[in-house]
Amino acid sequence: MHPIQNLLGGELARAMLIQIQKLKLDIETAMLELNQILRANEINFAILAALPAFFLSLVVLMLLRAWVKQDTRAEGKGRIARVQRRLLIVEVEKKIMQFQSRIDQGLEKDAQCMYGLVLYTLDRLYRAVERHAKSTGEWQCLRQDISDLGKPNLQTAHKLMVTSRMERMYDCLLPSTRR
User: Fold this and answer.
1) How confident is the model at residue 178 (pLDDT cuts 50, 70, 90)?
2) Which of 64, 89, 120, 164 has the highest CB neighbour number within 10 Å of its CB?
3) DSSP strand E in 44-175: where?
4) How far apart are CA 40 and CA 135, in angstroms?
5) Backbone torsion region of residue 56, taken as left when φ is above 0, otherwise alpha when ψ lies between -120 and 50, otherwise beta
6) pLDDT tens by residue, 111-160
7) Residue 4: how many CA atoms within 13 Å on its side-chain side?
C-alpha cells in the first residue's frame, strides 16, 4: 500500500539489514579463526624465516674451519707428522703397484686413472715434505726423487727402489727416534 514507506522502513529493509549483519558476523568469525590459525603457526613462521640465515652461517663456519685447519698433519716436525709422511710413501708405493697391475691386465683407461692417483699422492707428499726438507738441506735430492716417481716411462721396479731409498735416507721421512 505504501511502497516508498515500505522501501525505507518496511520488512524488506529490515531483512536486508539482518542479512548484512549476519554476513558481517560471519566475516568477523572467519577473521578470528584465521587470526587463531596464524597465532598457532607464528612459531613455525619464525623458524622458517630463521632457517636460511642458520644454514648460511653454518656453511660460512664450515668454510672458515676448513680454511683455518687446512689438513697440515704431515707438514709438522713431530712424531705424528713423521708417521703421516711415511704413510704417504706407503700410499705412493701402493698406487704405483696398482698402476702396474692395471697395465699388466691391459686395462689402459684404469691405468690412466691410477696414474692420476699416483700423481695426486706424489703432490700430497711433495707438499708435506717441502718445508721440513728445505730446513734439513735435503730438498733438492728429495724433489728430484719425487719427480722421478712421477715419470710415466720409468720402470716400476726402479720407482719402488726410489721409494725404498727415500724411506731409508731422508731425515724428514725416517721413523721417529722416540717410541
Assistant:
1) very low
2) 89
3) none
4) 67
5) alpha
6) 788 888 888 888 877 877 777 777 777 777 777 788 788 887 778 787 88
7) 0
